[in-house]
Amino acid sequence: MNPLLQKLQPYPFERLRKLFEGVTPNPAYRPISLGIGEPKHPTPDFIKQTLNSALYDPVNDLAAYPPTAGTPKLRAAFTDWLKQRYGLELDPATQVLPVNGSREALFAFAQTVIDPNKQDGQGNGPVVVCPNPFYQIYEGAALLAGAKPYFAPSDPKRNFAVDWDSVPDAVWQRTQLLYVCSPGNPTGAVMPLDEWKKLFDLSDRHGFVIASDECYSEIYFRDEPPLGGLEAAAKLGRGFERLVAFTSLSKRSNAPGLRSGFVMGDAALLKAFLLYRTYHGSAMAPPTQAASIAAWGDEAHVVANREQYRAKFARVTPILAEALDVALPDAGFYLWAGVRGVCSGDDAAFARELLAQYNVTVLPGSYLAREANQFNPGRGRIRMALVAETAECEEAARRIVQFVQSHSQ
Ligand SMILES: Cc1ncc(COP(=O)(O)O)c(C=O)c1O
Q1: Which ligand 1 atom sits closest to the C-alpha of 104?
Q2: Where does the Aminotransferase class I/classII large domain lie (predicted)?
Q3: 184 close to ligand 1 (CB < 6 Angstrom)
Q4: Residue ranges of the chain with pLDDT lower than 70?
Q5: CA neighbor of 197 nearest in space, from 183, 210, 214, 213
Q6: Is 253 in the pocket of ligand 1 (CB under 6 A)?
Q7: CA distances from 327 to 192, 225, 238, 318, 376 (A)
């Protein structure tokens, strides 16, 4: 067996199942889950219909192997979207690639980029820098690629911006890959241009690659849409050297089951990534390609989806703010709330007791972060995914307020 598999941590939902073992949720309440970050708004009909009719279209049916690089039409759909969303002109032949959801791509990219045998003068191997808290795939990708993850904490005092300055120079020197998540899961923080500049400067100095996870980019609460990594590079007058961004239809188009996204950026990196993906067998099914072309070509459903989240967050956030340390995030569909003063600030105990007494599921923040330098930045926080319908989220929020008030007395 590959010994690196032993290094993988249990997924947060596995830990949640264990935490809830033996808990009987109060039967007086119907269950509401704010635990899993899975979109629940319906997938637009035109996407499903395109998927369906593609099965009977000889160009898109299942009778041939699809190319790993996707069809020219699919790649043009990506670059058309990049033009209208960010004003960027990318070469569809070399600067974009389809992926089967951003998760597999975020994982596979580390396997393409990392050289596990490269050591510094002291015999230390490669490092992958990740935000903390973070999307757990980054850690697993780093470990299975033979690198060591290094966690940079997000700072609640600066709207959860990641404290990149806290990463020692000796760590940057060994860094081969940096994961950025903007908008962030779970914090919802969007990285501004000056932080991008800082990271580009570090990448220029140390030669590491930046993987920018942007799958929440279309769900935002400010007027201004979140800045993309490639957009930031263009604004700073740079090219896309050592920069690849990841996006997806899962959140934008409420289609997590479609498994469709794409990557964009540095042509040399994408050439190597295509080679890796060809061997790995990561081509996108032709009907999925057809449905993806339709989805990337339509913005009306994205605007409607965003409006739904905006209305929901506008109703739910003030209710929760009565009892918890919580505010409207920049973007994403999570609330990242402080629970100090309740259950002694123990986020796991909070989640367990809340389920037992009010039948509401939330995710303990410490499960989404790692202890680094004696500090777990998720401790004392919970993540609530506002993916259910507004009425259900409001009901959950009211129960949480009751729970907090009864436990603070
Ligand atoms: C931060 C982040 N990145 C990537 C993904 C993967 O999404 P998908 O594979 O559906 O594109 C998720 C899913 O929840 C996520 O939260």
Answers
A1: 9
A2: 32-400
A3: no
A4: 409
A5: 210
A6: no
A7: 19, 18, 34, 8, 21
145-168 tens-digit pLDDT: 999 999 999 999 999 999 999 999
Which amino acid is located at 136 in the chain? Q
pTM over 0.70: yes
- CA 52 – ligand 1 centroid, Å: 25
Instruction: Determine the distance from the C-alpha atom of residue 304 to the mean position of all C-alpha atoms in its chain, rounded to a whole number.
Output: 21
- Centre of ligand 1 from the C-alpha of residue 319, in Å: 27
For 182-215, what is each residue's pLDDT tens digit? 999 999 999 999 999 999 999 999 999 999 999 9
- The residue assigned the tokens 């990318």 is 90
Whether 186 is in the pocket of ligand 1, judged by its Cβ within 6 Å, is no
Q: What is the DSSP letter of 155?
A: E
Residues 6+ apart with CB under 8 A from 254: 39, 40, 41, 42, 43, 44, 305
**135 Cβ closer than 6 Å to some ligand 1 atom:** yes
Pocket probe mutation, ligand 1, options 13, 109, 162, 215, max atoms within 8 Å of Cβ = 215
**6 Cα–ligand 1 center, Å:** 23
Which conformational region is residue 220 in: left (phi greater than 0), alpha (psi within -120 to 50 degrees), or beta? Answer: beta
pLDDT at 120: 87
- pLDDT tens, 35-64? 988 888 999 999 999 999 999 998 888 998
